[in-house]
Amino acid sequence: MDVRRVVEIWNPGAGCSGTGYLVADRIVLTALHNVLGAGRVEVRRLAPGAGDGRWAAAELLWPERTQDPQVDVALIRVTDGAWTAPDGMDPIRWGRIEGAVVEERLGCLAVGFPRSEERGGVRDTKEIRGYVESLTGLKSGGERITVHVNESAVPSKPDGKSRWKGTSGAALFARGRLVGVVTTDRARDYEADQLTAVSVASLAARPGFAMAVKAAGGDLVLEDVSVASDTGVPRTAYDVEVPRGIHNLPDLPSRIFVGRDEALATLSRALSEDSQTITQTLHGLGGVGKTTLALHYAHDHRDEYRLVWWIRADTPELIDTGLAALAARLRGDRAPVLATAQAATWAIGWLQVHPGWLLVFDNVERPEDVRPVTGQLRDTGRQLITSRCKGGWSGEPLPLSVLATEDSLDLLARLTDAGDEEEARALAEDLGHLPLALEQAGAFMAQTLMTAGEYREMLGRYPGEATDAAPEGADPARTMARIWRITLDALHARDPRAVDLLRIAAWYAPTDIPRDLYAPLAKNPVDLARLLALLANYNMITLDRSTFGVHRLVQTVARTVAEDDPHRTDALIAGARQQAAVRLCEECPRDPVDNVTGWPKWRELQPHAEALLAAWPPVEDTENTHFVLNQMALYLQGQGELRKAIDYFRRGVETAERLLGTDHPGTLTALNNLAGVYGLVGDVAREIHMYEHVLDARMRVLGPDHPDTLLSRNNVASASETMGDVARAISLYEETLAVRLRVLGADHPDTLMSRHNLAFAYKTSGDAARALSLYEKVLADRLRVLGRDHPDTMLSRNNIAGVYMERGEVGRAISMYEELLGDQARVLGTLHPNTLMTRNNVAGAHEAAGDVARALSLYEDVLADLLRVLGADHPHTLATRHNMAYAYEKAGDAAVAITLFDQVLADQKRVLGDYHPDVLKTRSNLAHAYRATGDVDSAVNMYEQVLDDSIRALSPDHPTTRLVRSNLAVVRRYQALARATHWKPAKATD
Predict the structure, then answer these.
(1) What is the rounded CA–CA span in Å between residue 412 and residue 25?
(2) Are 521 and 481 members of one domain?
(3) N or C, which terminus of the chain has less Cβ within 10 Å?
């Protein structure tokens, strides 16, 4: 069920409205009586921004003669030229209910426009959920389906008319298949009983209906639907249906809940207003009980929602992680694992089309962190946000203050025998009436059989420092720090290692800290479990199956030096910080760029590495943090997050210079890595300058024959080639090759790589014959020395195929690419980045061969996998999106090409910058697409701008600059001819 396909229908002749469902871009399925008596009808989409609610003209398509006896179903065609269908719609899946095999109730879903769902003059949908009972759902020989409505909120009765007026024409779905069209209700008015639908199976038996669907580009293939039918792995978010009651709510931290009745009632009223869309924010000081209040509400009202999902929202990354976890729960164990960003997008898509849920975003630091998600979900559910931040929210947030004095005393009395009431009252004042502080104090007092007076005396001996903001007249962060000091004393007495573990955890992200990070710190898994349980027992951490979390204020205290706290000395905190870095060093998978099997572990460790590096002053970086910096930068580089990679590489260079000296080989390696990522973002001038600096230093320090020196010379050559100075690149490649032949021998992999790079430069210079000859010699040697399955051998095979394609021998290129693809899938796996890019090359080869339809199909397949594995912003993904846009232009659909070019250009600029060579190429191709539409003036203007930027960013003689200059000359000739003769250029076909 894709709610974006739901449309409202207006019949001016009969003065009535109804519901319809888009079964093709311009074809709407509805009830026949909705359109009877009208010369024309009008439709409009529901989705926000869908034509801004504008009505579009439509005409009856089927049946052709309404006076003939027909079932109460019609197909209408939208005739308005400005009509646009939703993007990214999947094909309709048609279903047939097999009544003979239905052994239980079969759940059904429809979305329509009941009359009561009109608010402020704006129509809104009502979701209708029900079921078809065993053997009773199909009537009249399979023509009609009787649906029992049981899970829809019944609309209020409007002026004695039917509550369900306007629902006729709604598409009925079961197990993700369209099985019928709602036509009539059983009675004029009822609370919630039965609806009648015409079955798709009966429609499919009518040739006119099936032919009309097929002519519109659809394929009316019926799939059997029953309770026992296996739907397989859902293809999209719209296919997934889940039972009510799904949630991931943590258990209540305590059954004792005092002083919050009014706040809970206010929150309940706010979230129960008569609207499908509510976003409510709770704000207040850390520790005041926002999370506890939200959790009580979620548990108390869980049965009112289809789904309740709790998301830790301290950072945008954690929000994505929470949404990704929701996607994993909904998709099930059989579905392929998605990258975090892709899974989060999937979850948002599901929420957009399945109303009736509650999301809780707990501890949002800044309003802008959650807006990208709440903005997309404005129309389908309820959202509850907790935050310390008061301002910047849409709507009026609900403030949550500290407890009243009597409520504080009640809480202490329920938790422990506090003794003298005056001492308890004084303790509550000392603790600032902060619920978190009161709960932790009460738990400690109960466990140690301590009175309130004794507890206050201990607090006086350990005043502590202020560690966070506080309400007027008190400092709860300081109060909590003192409480945590006492708790740490108790933990230390039980097992000092538990306190050590907590201090180490203070340097990581506050949630989802992997337990196995701490395995070396315990004797065995049982011992580690006992240590974590001890911390959880004192409410210092929250445990999950494989991870645990620490409150961020606990972390702040645990890593803040306090002179009078033996648990927070300089030496202990510095040691914990170093141990946190060591643990990451040992757990980081090696070769983060190419080791695909290590990526899931990297995704798990990334937030903790980022937290450690953010809390660690760069001037205090050590060898361990330098290693983490470099590994993180390499991983981010491989994932396409180039700007973040530059930040870490730059910090790594500064650390190496301070620790090792400017000429140390390790420092030069750090500079070399930084130079490389500058090249990836298009700053090739800086890349060459840094490579040349490293080359000079390595010549001086290591000598001309050292492998690192030879690597630097190779890198300078590569960057020169990128800048368009191919002559210099060839000279440097030849020098490097000569030395490697002398020092390493002809069969050394580095020597073979030099020959390979030289061949690539020959190809860039235009000497394809010489390049091919050298490529083939290198391939023969690599096959002999390294074997067929070595990555370097596969690289040679790929580049030889590329030369054949450039020479016009496309058939031979396709054969080589497909043979290589089979070997890569076998050796590297089907989802390895190299395999994915070979699939991209296969698509490009078919495009070059003129089979554009097949190329587009291949591009779409590989793009789906690139999005899932590498994410939307990875350079490989952006390149394939660019290629697919160009293929659409070659297919003659320049308008679609322009749209796709615009989209990929915006993302390339954001990821790579305004003047990256790939960005300039996309702008050039966009200009070419405008020329293809006949808009020569726009093409000239765009080419002129790209040429100026190419000259400035690359060079006047760079290959990209020369290509743009050539294209500009051609299109100017068209422009001049058009102006001189009033000739209108034909659409380009090249």
Answers:
(1) 64
(2) no
(3) C
